[in-house]
């Protein structure tokens, strides 16, 4: 039971640089929301931090008053971990500063920044930090789970580019985590999620990618999907790490390069990014264009920032979402057959079957370097179930669960950031046994009371 009295809250407010919000106050309704509309929770307090000092105050307050504490970065965790009923949200979203050091391409990013904030600043210098593909996602949660996107096959995961972090621990102590300071904590932050503390700032190595990339989307006809995927899964694995090609099976959104009659029909979208010349990128993508018929395509040199926000509208805030995922060991014929069966039964226009190709730089980092564990997976299967009406919950959840179950025999492991609330055993699947044991030891050391537990939780007792 929390002991946060009105007087204690008043005292906290007096010490706080940002705002501390309660129900009924201006800003509370917006601040309590997270990306996934399934989670409609009402915390007692929302501490909107603007400084590291605020974060420390909030942690100490939550601890002293035995409150359930959620930490909110970009609020995009599909399992809704950044919010809670009755407790305290430590909201980092006002902390979004990004500073680029031109001398060494180091990029210092506040704990509540969004990917778009990071691209916006780094692109001033022709740099990018390897991260995800939707600009309104939070740097915080994404990085702490691993972080991959269009340039990670060439430049590594977000965690592979992390140089150091400022961390507020469960005791409210401020630590630096890097290869030389608290290296055990640094290891755990790189894949162990928000289990060990609140990162108020990350320092990354930026990659000099320039301001444009050769990129595009090919929309393949669904009727030839089996043939196309058989070729795709083999071909993309032969490509240099500069080229990243993914696959999305979904109902065609109204993309301007598609004829109107195709909108709303089942297609295989093939988005790609090449870090190199248009000529060489064009040569590398041609075999995928030639294989089976397409409804249309768009390809060319594109501004990186535009590409990075090009998919934002398809996954905007507030819809109901349920994600299931696992790493596929291969896209065998049998596995593709299951995928296509479920594609034909997509429960809504907004659902997607998302199949990124992962190999490349992440697999060149030694397995024990970070807590991010499954570095050698070729493909991820993401079942993005997305709908608007509560009355569709049962139907949509059932589709996702059945699909996941039907493809489990082709899978090994999962990315922690793509988990829903699937229970303790499933969190373990994001790690190898060695990594898990090390994470539990670390949790015992840095958060023995499991103060940070609204996450894909690693209990200190294992
Ligand atoms: C539309 C969309 C697109 C996505 N695309 C990608 C992608 O391309 N690549 C990829 O790797 N992942 C992707 N993801 C998954 C994403 O990595 C996770 O959803 C991640 O949890 C989002 O982080 P957040 O800060 O926005 O979320 P939040 O819900 O705010 O936080 C997620 C978890 O991290 C903790 N946390 C957040 N910030 C901090 C911090 N600074 N310090 C300590 N703990 C913190 C929270 O407490 C919570 O437990 C995507 C998700 C969505 C919804």
TrEMBL record:
Instruction: Recall the GO molecular function terms of this protein's record.
Output: FAD binding; oxidoreductase activity
| Cofactor dependency | FAD
Q: The FAD-binding PCMH-type domain covers which part of the protein?
A: 39-209
Q: Superkingdom, according to UniProt? A: Bacteria
| Pfam families recorded | BBE, FAD_binding_4
Similarity annotation: Belongs to the oxygen-dependent FAD-linked oxidoreductase family.
Name the UniProt record assigns to this protein? FAD/FMN-containing dehydrogenase
Native organism is Desulfopila aestuarii DSM 18488
């Amino acid at each position: 039971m929390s002991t946060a009295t009105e007087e204690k809250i008043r005292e906290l407010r007096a010490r706080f640089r940002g705002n501390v919000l309660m129900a009924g106050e201006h800003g509370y309704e917006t601040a309590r929301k997270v990306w996934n509309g399934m989670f409609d929770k009402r915390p007692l307090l929302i501490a909107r931090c603007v400084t590291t000092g605020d974060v420390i105050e909030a942690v100490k307050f939550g601890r002293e008053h035995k409150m359930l504490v959620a930490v909110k970065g970009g609020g995009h965790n599909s399992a809704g971990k950044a919010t809670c009923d009755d407790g305290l949200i430590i909201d980092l979203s006002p902390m979004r500063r990004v500073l680029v050091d031109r001398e060494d391409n180091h990029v210092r990013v506040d704990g509540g920044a969004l990917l778009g904030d990071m691209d916006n600043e780094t692109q001033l210098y022709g740099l990018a930090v390897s991260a995800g593909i939707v600009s309104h996602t939070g740097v915080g949660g994404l990085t702490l789970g691993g972080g991959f996107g269009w340039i990670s096959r060439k430049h590594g995961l977000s965690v592979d580019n992390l140089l150091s972090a400022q961390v507020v621990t469960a005791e409210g102590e401020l630590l630096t985590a890097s290869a030389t300071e608290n290296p055990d904590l640094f290891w755990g932050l790189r894949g162990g999620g928000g289990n060990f503390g609140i990162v108020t700032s990350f320092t990354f190595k930026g990659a000099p990618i320039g301001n444009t990339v050769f990129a595009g989307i090919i929309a393949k006809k669904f009727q030839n999907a089996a043939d196309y995927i058989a070729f795709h899964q083999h071909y993309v694995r032969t490509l240099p790490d500069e080229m990243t090609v993914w696959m999305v099976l979904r109902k065609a959104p109204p993309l301007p390069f598609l004829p109107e009659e195709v909108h709303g029909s089942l297609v295989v979208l093939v988005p790609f990014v090449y870090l190199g010349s248009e000529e060489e990128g064009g040569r590398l993508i041609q075999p995928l264009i030639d294989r089976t018929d397409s409804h249309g395509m768009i390809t060319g040199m594109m501004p990186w920032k535009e590409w990075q926000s090009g998919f934002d509208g398809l996954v905007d805030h507030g819809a109901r979402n349920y994600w299931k995922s696992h790493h596929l060991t291969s896209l065998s014929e049998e596995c593709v057959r299951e995928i296509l069966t479920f594609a034909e039964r997509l429960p809504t226009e907004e659902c997607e079957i998302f199949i990124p190709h992962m190999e490349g730089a992440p697999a060149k980092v030694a397995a024990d370097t970070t807590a991010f564990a499954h570095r050698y997976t070729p493909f991820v299967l993401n079942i993005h179930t997305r709908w608007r009406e509560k009355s569709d919950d049962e139907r949509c959840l059932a589709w996702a669960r059945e699909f996941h179950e039907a493809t489990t025999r082709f899978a090994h492991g999962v990315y922690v950031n793509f988990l829903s609330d699937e229970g303790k055993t499933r969190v373990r699947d994001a790690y190898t046994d060695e990594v898990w044991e090390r994470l539990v030891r670390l949790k015992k050391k840095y958060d023995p009371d499991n103060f940070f537990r609204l996450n894909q939780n690693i209990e200190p007792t294992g």
